[in-house]
């Protein structure tokens, strides 16, 4: 396993093509807008070295027998699935943001199992290739960006029906030694902090979409790949001189990027699907279900911090004893633990796949994510209710640092006697950060659309809910006889 320092050093060797706010970034490691998101990923290395977190953060590789970071693990039991969710909750609590490394882990488990079943049917050798590749990932302790979401253009049309054929990433050339691909992947979590990118198709496909049924991995600095960093609310606060209080969460964050693949060559040993359109749906469904399980961990970890911050803000206002405040905090916990319950439940009910790794219960994983599309919004609403309007009307840190204004801000924005105005400002800025600021990308809107928008889960729930069995159960109790 790499140490945190070795991880950062190894990223410096990547010659990434990244643009932030219209400009090419020379040093992604120290860029003030990117750095907090790097810190979140770096923590996944730091805690894996810490004995206290060994149980959650590390695992024994099924490929090499060696100790590895859990983020590179192929789950070998339901216990592994449960530990994954617990690890994510713990990291959500420590970063109050998206720590980005889960997408690669979820992609790996989906590709590992799908390639096995694809080979059985088509006689391809993708699984063996993937095993070799993933052994390399584990040995190097790499961060892998799992890239699924295509831009999709006209949502009413299939990949091959689009007027612009690049709206879904596709194979543009097949060569003896590999393929050339073109297209883009949107909302790529953690891409700039990754060593590798693993591309997967984004929808189930038919024969005419064959060239779009493609999965592969390449280094993030492969010629032809470039990234445009996603804008976040309040992101330029990080560029302000000595920014601290106004950031809400100075040290951690997450990021997404639009990643463009402009005629990128992929060698044969890195290709895990190239035209087997009948396995595209399986790969999408597995990745999505694993990632919907993931939200049962990370989102309630961040939720824990938000609930804590809300309770603190109530204390700083002197309202913590009011019964409606207590009740709202209970409600926030109830919602947050319901998310977690689904994450744990879909893990406990997991099953072994033909390839040997474990898969979540898809119905429960989709219920988990469906709850995540709602509950963080309600938790956020209650947080804003309790925190009060000052959360969005506070003077800036620059005003607070102006000696002529400071005494007035201290005086008039004070809550209870024993708490400084500065601390009151800090807790409100943290709530702002999680609900409206840079972390809101990961906590709010990503709760809606990350790992698939709500309707995607409803389709899966409809498919998995076994309505026929339920109808039979009802008819039997009601005494309705089967027609002969
Ligand atoms: Fe991991 Fe959650 Fe971020 Fe997805 S949103 S990468 S599950 S922390
Ligand atoms: Fe996500």
Output mean pLDDT: 97
* Termini separation: 65 Å
Report the strand count. Answer: 14
CATH topological fold name of the domain at 283-465: Butyryl-CoA Dehydrogenase, subunit A, domain 3
Distinct small molecules? iron/sulfur cluster, fe (iii) ion
Q: What is the CATH superfamily label of the domain at 283-465?
A: Butyryl-CoA Dehydrogenase, subunit A, domain 3
Low-confidence stretches: none
Shape: globular
The CATH class of the domain at 283-465: Mainly Alpha
Q: How is the main sheet built?
A: 6 strands, mixed
**Count of helical regions:** 17
| Side-by-side strand order of the widest sheet | 2-1-10-11-7-6
**What is the alpha-carbon Rg in Å?**
24 Å
Structural class: alpha+beta
Helix content: 40-55%
Oligomer state equals single chain
Question: Summed up, what is this model?
Answer:
Helix content is 48%, strand content 13%. The protein is α+β, with helices and mostly antiparallel strands and 484 residues long. It has a domain at 283-465: Butyryl-CoA Dehydrogenase, subunit A, domain 3, CATH 1.20.140.10.
């Amino acid at each position: 396993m790499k140490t945190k320092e070795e991880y950062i050093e190894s990223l410096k060797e990547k010659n990434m093509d990244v643009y932030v706010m219209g400009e090419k970034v020379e040093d992604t490691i120290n860029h003030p807008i990117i750095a907090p998101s790097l810190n979140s990923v770096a923590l996944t290395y730091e805690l894996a070295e810490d004995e206290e977190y060994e149980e959650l953060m590390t695992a024994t590789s099924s490929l090499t027998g060696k100790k590895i970071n859990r983020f590179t693990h192929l789950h070998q039991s339901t216990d592994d699935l449960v530990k994954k969710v617990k690890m994510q909750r713990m990291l959500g609590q420590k970063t109050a943001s998206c720590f980005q490394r889960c997408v690669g882990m979820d992609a790996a488990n989906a590709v590992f199992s799908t390639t096995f079943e694809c080979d059985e049917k088509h006689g391809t050798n993708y699984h063996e290739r993937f095993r070799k590749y993933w052994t390399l990932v584990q040995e190097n302790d790499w961060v892998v960006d799992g890239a699924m979401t295509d831009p999709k253009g006209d949502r009413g049309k299939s990949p091959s029906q689009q007027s612009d054929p690049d709206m879904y990433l596709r194979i543009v050339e097949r060569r003896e030694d590999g393929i050339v691909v073109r297209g883009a992947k949107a909302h790529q979590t953690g891409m700039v902090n990754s060593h590798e990118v693993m591309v997967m198709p984004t929808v189930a496909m038919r024969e005419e979409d064959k060239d779009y049924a493609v999965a592969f991995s390449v280094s993030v600095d492969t010629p032809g790949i470039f990234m445009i960093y996603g804008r976040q609310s309040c992101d330029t606060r990080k560029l302000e001189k000595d920014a601290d209080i106004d950031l809400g969460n100075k040290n951690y964050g997450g990021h997404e990027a639009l990643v463009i693949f402009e005629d990128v060559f992929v060698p044969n040993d890195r290709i895990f699907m190239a035209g087997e359109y009948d396995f595209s749906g399986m790969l999408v469904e597995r990745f999505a279900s694993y990632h919907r399980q993931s939200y049962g961990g990370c989102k309630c970890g961040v939720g824990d911090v938000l609930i804590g911050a809300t309770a603190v803000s109530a204390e700083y206002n002197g309202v913590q004893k009011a019964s409606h405040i207590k009740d709202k905090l209970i409600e926030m916990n109830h919602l947050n633990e319901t998310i977690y319950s689904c994450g744990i439940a879909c893990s406990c009910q997991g099953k072994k796949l033909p390839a040997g790794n474990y898969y979540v219960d898809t119905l429960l994983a989709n219920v988990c994510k469906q709850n995540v599309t709602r509950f963080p919004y309600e938790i956020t609403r209650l947080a804003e209710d309790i925190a009060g309007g000052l959360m969005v009307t506070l003077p800036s840190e620059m005003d607070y640092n102006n000696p002529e204004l400071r005494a007035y801000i201290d005086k008039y924005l004070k809550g209870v006697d024993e708490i400084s105005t500065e601390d009151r400002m800090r807790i409100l800025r943290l709530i702002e950060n999680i609900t409206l600021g840079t972390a809101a990308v990961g906590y709010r809107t990503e709760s809606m659309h990350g790992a698939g928008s709500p309707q995607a889960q409803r389709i899966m729930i409809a498919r998995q809910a076994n309505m026929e069995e339920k109808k039979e159960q009802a008819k039997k109790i009601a005494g309705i006889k089967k027609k002969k």
